[in-house]
Structures are given as structure tokens and as C-alpha cells.
Amino acid sequence: MSKSELGVKTNLVSELLMMSYFFIDSLLEKFIFKGGNIWITFIILFAFWACDFMYNKKYNDLVDEASKLMLLKVDHIASKIMLYSIFLIAVFFSANYTRGLDISNLDIGVILLAILFIQSLSKLILYIYFDKKGICN
Fold first, then answer.
1. Cβ atoms within 10 A of the Cβ of 7, count?
2. pLDDT confidence of residue 132
3. Hey, is 8 helix, strand or coil?
4. What are residue 79's phi and psi, to 5 degrees?
5. pLDDT band at 38 (very low <50, low <70, confident <90, very high)
6. Which of 73-77, 83-87, 122-126, 129-133 has the lowest mean pLDDT?
7. What CA–CA distance (Å, rounded) separates 26 from 109?
8. Is 52 exposed, middle or buried (0-12, 13-18, 19+ CB in 10 A)?
9. Which is it for the CA torsion 74, 76, 79, 85, positive or negative?
10. How far apart, in whole angstroms, are the C-alpha atoms of residue 47 and residue 137?
């Protein structure tokens, strides 16, 4: 495995970890802490951002052309997944039978974070799949 493939995969894993952090944090705030301040999660987030910043500063320029092509293809597929899922949620919330539901802003935020988590996970899985199969064009 070359350093460029490792750098792209590490960035995708970093993005997935960040989305999973936000998703878990919002679920904790909704169901367990119920609006209380969670300082330990901010400390974990700050430590993760610092590590991610140092890693990206060191290995940011190690991407070859094949990895860029695969990443472009993966981003195109992931953006379609995001667009269709947000469209489906907009159609669902604008329907007449959902007007009676009491949906808070936090619930909508959790749904949107779940979509971002699914998009990050699909980007990582698709990149690994294209990398294993050697599909870059």
C-alpha cells in the first residue's frame, strides 16, 4: 500500500470518525443528558481536531493521480446519495400526514447527521472497493 492510498484512506476514516462523533454526541444529548452541557465531548473533539490537523499538515500532499480519480468518482456517487436522501426527507416532512407530528430541531439535526454519517461511511467503503478492484477510470 502506497503512502498516497494510506493518506486518502486515513482522511476518509478521519471524516467518518468526525461524523460518528457528532452523531453520537447529538444522540447522547437527546436521550441521556437531555440538554445538559457535556464538557468531556468538547475535550474529545478538540483533541481529535488537533491530531487531525497535525496529520493533514504532514501528509496532505501525498495524493497521486489514480487516487484523485477514484476519490472524484467516490465523491460523485456520495453526493448523489446525499442529494437523494435529503430530497426524500424533504418530501416526507412536507407531506400532509406528517404535519401533526411534533418534530423538534434536535430530531431534524439527528436525521441530518445520520445522513452525513451514511455518506461518510459510503465514501470510505466505495474508495476501498474501487481501490481493491483497481477501477480508476
1. 20
2. 83
3. helix
4. -70, -35
5. low
6. 129-133
7. 8
8. middle
9. negative
10. 38
- pLDDT tens string 77-88: 988 988 998 888
CA dihedral (74, 75, 76, 77) positive or negative: positive
Residue 108's nearest CA partner among 79, 81, 86 is 86
Q: Is 94 helix (H, G, I), strand (E, B) or coil?
A: helix
pTM: 0.69
Residue entry with cell 465514501:
123
Give the pLDDT of residue 107. 80
Q: In this structure, which amino acid lies at residue 111?
A: I
Q: What is the enclosing helix (H) or strand (E) of 42?
A: helix 39-59
